[in-house]
Specification:
homotetramer, alpha/beta, Alpha-Beta Plaits, TIM Barrel, eight-stranded parallel beta barrel, four-stranded antiparallel beta sheet, 31% helix
Chain lengths: 360, 360, 360, 360
Amino acid sequence: MIIVMQPEAREAEIAAVEAKIRSHGLEVHVSRGTERTLIGAVGDERRLDPEMFDPMPGVERSMHILKPYKLVAREWHKASSVVDAGGVPIGGADVQVIAGPCSVETVPQMDTAAAGVAAAGARLMRGGAFKPRTSPYAFQGKGVEGLTMLKDAAKGHGLPIVTELMDVRMLDTFLEHEVDVIQIGTRNMQNFDLLKEVGTVDVPVVLKRGMSATISEWLMAAEYIAAGGNHRIILCERGIRTYETAYRNVLDVTAVAVLKKETHLPVIVDPSHAGGKAWMVPALSCAAVAAGADGLLIEVHPCPAEAWCDADQALAIDEFAALMDRLDAIARAIGRRVDRRVATSVTPAAPIAPDAKEAA
Amino acid sequence: MIIVMQPEAREAEIAAVEAKIRSHGLEVHVSRGTERTLIGAVGDERRLDPEMFDPMPGVERSMHILKPYKLVAREWHKASSVVDAGGVPIGGADVQVIAGPCSVETVPQMDTAAAGVAAAGARLMRGGAFKPRTSPYAFQGKGVEGLTMLKDAAKGHGLPIVTELMDVRMLDTFLEHEVDVIQIGTRNMQNFDLLKEVGTVDVPVVLKRGMSATISEWLMAAEYIAAGGNHRIILCERGIRTYETAYRNVLDVTAVAVLKKETHLPVIVDPSHAGGKAWMVPALSCAAVAAGADGLLIEVHPCPAEAWCDADQALAIDEFAALMDRLDAIARAIGRRVDRRVATSVTPAAPIAPDAKEAA
Amino acid sequence: MIIVMQPEAREAEIAAVEAKIRSHGLEVHVSRGTERTLIGAVGDERRLDPEMFDPMPGVERSMHILKPYKLVAREWHKASSVVDAGGVPIGGADVQVIAGPCSVETVPQMDTAAAGVAAAGARLMRGGAFKPRTSPYAFQGKGVEGLTMLKDAAKGHGLPIVTELMDVRMLDTFLEHEVDVIQIGTRNMQNFDLLKEVGTVDVPVVLKRGMSATISEWLMAAEYIAAGGNHRIILCERGIRTYETAYRNVLDVTAVAVLKKETHLPVIVDPSHAGGKAWMVPALSCAAVAAGADGLLIEVHPCPAEAWCDADQALAIDEFAALMDRLDAIARAIGRRVDRRVATSVTPAAPIAPDAKEAA
Amino acid sequence: MIIVMQPEAREAEIAAVEAKIRSHGLEVHVSRGTERTLIGAVGDERRLDPEMFDPMPGVERSMHILKPYKLVAREWHKASSVVDAGGVPIGGADVQVIAGPCSVETVPQMDTAAAGVAAAGARLMRGGAFKPRTSPYAFQGKGVEGLTMLKDAAKGHGLPIVTELMDVRMLDTFLEHEVDVIQIGTRNMQNFDLLKEVGTVDVPVVLKRGMSATISEWLMAAEYIAAGGNHRIILCERGIRTYETAYRNVLDVTAVAVLKKETHLPVIVDPSHAGGKAWMVPALSCAAVAAGADGLLIEVHPCPAEAWCDADQALAIDEFAALMDRLDAIARAIGRRVDRRVATSVTPAAPIAPDAKEAA
């Protein structure tokens, strides 16, 4: 950490800053420039925080030199982590696609969806049983009954399931229903009690980016989960909020490139929520894979116009199947491929990337 | 709701839209313009949603005419609501100030803070026992012990308390500790399960704006609480996230003016989190009161530089006392005053605005 | 245009709105709903503006139904426009790459750059002679001398040139120096006098998106140029400003997909300014082509670390050559290819897309 | 400037950075920490830029310690500057109000407006002769004829005029028409050629903030003007662009407080463009004065509903007069007052703040 002193800072003020640094067990390095004196704290600067120094007399500002995250940082864990998601490796050589409807509605809807996405090559199935809705008057999801419907439909086609956990009190129920991957939604990215709880279980977590979360905040949210002992974390970019009103969110492909450098965790993209319209999904999906995403989370519905929520962003099954072909071509252009092996059992697949191993 | 058809929409597509509107119990009004056909849905449009129509063939886009909130809307409840916060009326003629430290630390710290803010004229005391921290390694608050410390210190000076609830499982504990006002923090503004729970109790709620929440989303979050039966809601603007990096957030005074028009609920402002620096607090506090805020939520600490969190944004007690004088002058310039009656008991004060009444 | 009346609007107020619509030559269509009366203006609504109606008594708000742009809208010009940029077709079947240094520095630098980018397959060369710099103390470009250096270097390798015009008084000089494509920079996207002037010449214009311009504002800026008679417009997405601080801008690939639907004009992407770091350029370039961009504008420098401006975002020539191979693979995955025909003369190339034709 | 080296940076890479610093005439100070080596550049760091070091091998990132602006910085010019605007002191003890219509329309409109705003106590008059409009089809202003109309109307009531310059070629015309204060609009804040030109004349400049400009970019734009020799600069906050759609812009009162600390230049606020609706103007004006603004720029029209542009944001004359009373009360609450001396001549008023002096 560097503390920048004000131009007229007095010696006693400089000494007080030095003393505070030393009281936290770090060493001090002073540099007297022509316009400012800088005080460097040498040691584990994660014990310090700018707010410790900024209010002190004579201090202009202070700043961290190191990033605040550690367990999730590639700096400390060079190899990419591959997360085993119900037998499907995410973060390895292959691009994985998770697909399914926004919300669980009926048994026939779920069966048709499961059959369709499996046939098109998706390796996991998504579906919301608990729905975070802006309006208290909107459909809130089928609840526990929906978990059963999702699990049954997906199991019939050999697909592990991904579904959103909103309320910490439902975690046990998720485990009882054998949810393969727990999704933390964008509105709960900084619901720290929820993060702490999913940090204690041995189930992979898809952590969606908050709708205006910085990369640093997002990785710190992942750090909460990892600090609890659960390292099976998959980051999911889903578009950020900006001033633009012509579309719902702006898909941030730069984040994909930056995350692959900053963290060893897998990064997937949700193109459906990013754009908010089905016709945008193919272009955004292709862009995500081209930018280096390890997977996609795509909304697919047997009959989009009749969907109970987010109807205008779901792909029909035939549209999804056509997209899978195009995505595979994009993946191959950058030396990867879309994993479309038809699941024949629920036995975990053999690792695809021989040299990749899950974060321990 | 208005559905705008595409230029080449066919008659069958128009008919399908009409049928869908009627199936929800509304009537249809068609207007054929020179470039577009518009279909109006006449009736309670809250039963409809753009996503029902946008994916239909021939539809260009659809849009609500009415606002989505109802219980919290001034359109349906003309008189301003005055919320009784532990005997202190918020939303009436007087401006109320809530003050105290960011986090509960020690018994002496809390006693000194309570004495100081009460003497300066604050009518309620704030303090965090459970702290939402970006880093899992940062101080997370004193927890339940902190609730006791806060309540004891405040009670000694006749101050009702305001403190943040993060985890739905702690609600009963909050009630047992006689928390007078429950605060929902910025990161939980769309934690819908939490909103539903505080909607079931008879305790006032301060609902902070999400760090990039729109006015509409914020009022819909309040609608969640109201829909549960709890109408004792106080909105708190605390700065929004923008592209600017010279300060932490941008205090949105326009929101204050807009909310006073859109909703009957009281609106207060947190100038401490908005700017992030103690030296900005006086200017932002004055601006908030001048813009029409019904109250302020200010961080005050006996010794800011030693505070365990947000040290650089807390006012010292003497700074706070000086600010209270200035705020009262600003309030009087617009025909209000800052309520600084020294609390002599915990008996609810007589209503100040005779014609104001709390939302039922 | 739709005018929404307030719930208690009186008949006289409704009549006044109707009269105002008719006074502009449009017809009126009134729809009386259960909660609001809506007044539709039937006819060419571009003669009307919300600000004409919003201040009238009894009006709640008013809104356009149609988009404000016309000449650049795909609605009125279905076929994609192909712009002839010094003999290179932009907007046709092939993806075109424009490359070169941020600023013109020296004759050897320009010659090496021109040779390198031509050999790697770029069809046009970029280079700044006039530089918009945040600081008045920073290098402001070589000026007119730089135009000559750029033209000479590029001509030697059969490359048309693209360079930025900042000052309306320099337009004649640009024409004299045979600038093949005029670039309007992000800070001048709404410099309307400059737009009007380049609208009067017969030279293609690359119009960069303002750093926080909406799609609508951007297309209206293009409409300014088209309204002057110059339809040879190429839109260039270069990243937008958001709250994120981990990188300079957020490359908005959603904009590419939306623009291809909204306008017939070609859309290219500048991945160098978007991310601000050379190591991000490959991922962003691939994402842009995968999303449907018609071309790229990439900064390439013979020795990036020695560049006089934006040194940290330029690719070295060998990095650029490697990227070109990958881009071509991505383009082929979506049925296109990168046009890398070595230019043998300055004779305009034959059109590649037989059915495409330039906007007249 | 501090250069942070990568964890594995080699000695030769450290030496190369040191050599580069020394080659620019600064000294080097190296600090070897436990996780990173830091290299400090001691001397006038304005000669250096992060982009000089970031692309060098072994460098992680580099950052300025000092602010990039100098002439406009309070650090180097402690006393607040008072700018003489046609005889009216801006930036002194009194708050000044500039008022008038959005655009110059007719002689009677201007005369009525001038009489009204002067009677209400405005000391300067605004009015646009050249209008920056998003659409090429919208009214573009009366042009030179409008300048004459504005000057004549204002002169009749002893009011200096403020009007926007868009095109550098019109500067001489502005001088011939005795424009007292030149306004640079939000879209031209980084039109560097325009800034350079107004830097050469001896006329005060109101520099509006770009619609998504940072404080630093804004002060650097002012630095452009000052670097040309013209120190008579008035900064004008006018709302910034955010994600919020319930109002046009977010008035950034935090900017007012921050600017008063960072620069010695006067800061005024345009509440009309900030909110975009007349009913918001009083609340925003009060907030601005309470936050410490030195003046306001308010749109006033004899008949707002008939205004040719921005009709929904102009105050009527009686509304403006009522607001002036309220503003004066707010100003007095913080120890200032609104200067409402009726102008009896065009002779410059005596300085109000005896100790204030204009920036030389």
